Amino acid sequence: MSFLIRVQLPDSPGTLGAVATALGMAGADILSVDVVERGEGIAVDDLVVELPSGRLPDALITAAESVEGVEVDAVRPYAGVLDTHRELELVEEIAARPVSGLDLLAEGVPKIIRAGWSLVVARADHEVRRLAASTAAPEAPLRDLPWLPLERATVLDSEDTWIPDTWKELGTELAATPLGKPDRALLVGRPGGPMFRAAEVARLAHLAGIVAVVLDS
Q1: Domain co-membership, 91 together with 189
Q2: ACT domain: which residues (predicted)?
Q3: Do residues 135 and 105 touch, judged by C-beta distance below 8 A?
Q4: CA distances for 79 relative to 1, 44, 82, 185, angstroms
Q5: Are residue 65 and residue 112 in the same domain, yes or no?
Q6: Where are the beta strands (DSSP E) in 20-87?
Q7: Which residues lie below 8 Å from residue 7, measured CB to CB, with a gap of 6+?
């Protein structure tokens, strides 16, 4: 079974290699590594690993944190394809098929930023509308989005009152960014965490901004 493990580690030569060695000794096969954030001597990396049947994911935490200075932010099952460099391909696909642009965006974003699902939502006449949704997006109705209109990309409070109980039960972390106008937004959910970091939110905002220009041109 595949897992996504997010680690904070000293940004120094050999540390990531030591983590990889420790995970390998625990029986994990590393499929990919992606740098999420880097600065002030600390790196945040996402590793997708494969564990043999019967091995518990707790073994990943124990192994990674056996390396000095390493902290595990989160471990969660991962069934997607790590596709963190697909922004350009997605924008080109949307430009070629603008009528389906919102659907393509909603389906493509989770693969790019390692999220569980995404929705394109809007507020019109005091009603919440779902304009597009990824395949894995929850079907729970959204009766209110008090953060709309939205002026800039942000991490949302995962315990706020507007959030459906089923999302809270799954520990869903949320981020949103305007999509061309303040009353339309791209909402992204990551059940089980980890929290969205500043670099990920900035990446989401950048992508949404480009797509909005493409769709409105």
Answers
A1: yes
A2: 4-79
A3: no
A4: 8, 21, 9, 26
A5: no
A6: 29-39, 42-50, 71-77
A7: 19, 44, 45, 47, 64, 70, 71, 72, 73
Structure tokens at 23: 């995970």
Q: Are 139 and 172 in contact (CB under 8 A)?
A: no
- The domain total for the chain is 2
Residue 148 lies in a domain: yes
Task: Please check whether residue 82 lies inside any domain of the structure.
Answer: no
Using CA atoms, how far apart are residues 100 and 203, in angstroms rounded to an integer? 22
At 179, list the tokens.
């999509």
- Locate tokens 């073994």: which residue? 59
Q: Is-contact 1 77, C-beta < 8 A?
A: yes
pLDDT at residue 32, rounded to an integer: 82
What is the Cα–Cα distance from 8 to 194, expressed in whole angstroms?
12
Confidence of residue 80 (pLDDT cuts 50, 70, 90): low
Lowest average pLDDT, out of 58-72, 92-106, 193-207, goes to 193-207
